[in-house]
Amino acid sequence: MLSPSPVPSLWRSTGLCFLTLGEPDERGFQEVQADLERAGKHGKSPPAKVAALEALTAACWVASEDEHNTRATMQALQWHWRRGEQMHGRLAGVLQ
C-alpha cells in the first residue's frame, strides 16, 4: 500500500494555522497566497490541489484585509469553481 502524500497535510496545516491566528495578518497572507494559488492549479494530485485551495480560502478569510488581494483570491477560486463545473459537465456527457 502506498503511503498518503504529505502535501495535502501540509496545505491543511497551513490553513489551520491561519484559522488559529484569529486576526488579520495581511503580510502573512501575501507570503502564502501565490504558493497556494500555484499549488491549487498545478498540484500533483487532486487531493493536494483541493487542500491548497482550502488553505487559500481559510487564509484569505482570516488574514486578508486588502480589498485587492481578497478580490484576486476570489477570482482565482471562481476560476477553479468554473473549471470544476466544466469538468463535471464533460464527464456527464461522456457517461450518457
Walkthrough of the structure:
The chain has 96 residues and is mainly α. The chain has one domain (6-95). Helices cover 83% and strands 0% of the residues. The protein contains 4 helices and no strands. It has helices spanning 6-21, 26-42, 46-63, 67-95. The longest helix is centred in the C-terminal third of the chain and has 29 residues, at 67-95. It is globular, with a radius of gyration of 15 Å. The relative contact order is 0.16.
What are its keywords?
mainly alpha, single chain, 96 residues
Summarize, please.
This protein is mainly alpha-helical and 96 residues long. The protein has four helices and no strands.
Q: How is the topology of this model organized?
A:
Layout: H1 6-21, H2 26-42, H3 46-63, H4 67-95
Helix pairs in contact: 1-3, 2-3, 2-4, 3-4
Oligomeric nature of the chains: single chain
Percent of residues in helices comes to over 70%
Radius of gyration: 15 Å
User: End-to-end span in angstroms?
Assistant: 34 Å
Mean pLDDT: 77
Shape: globular
Q: Which ranges are low-confidence, i.e. pLDDT below 50, for 5 or more consecutive residues?
A: none
What number of structural domains do the residues give?
A: 1
Secondary structure tally, helices? 4
In total, the number of strands is 0
* Structural class determined from secondary elements: mainly alpha
User: Major sheet, described briefly?
Assistant: none
Strand content: under 5%
| Topology as a string of helices (H) and strands (E) | HHHH
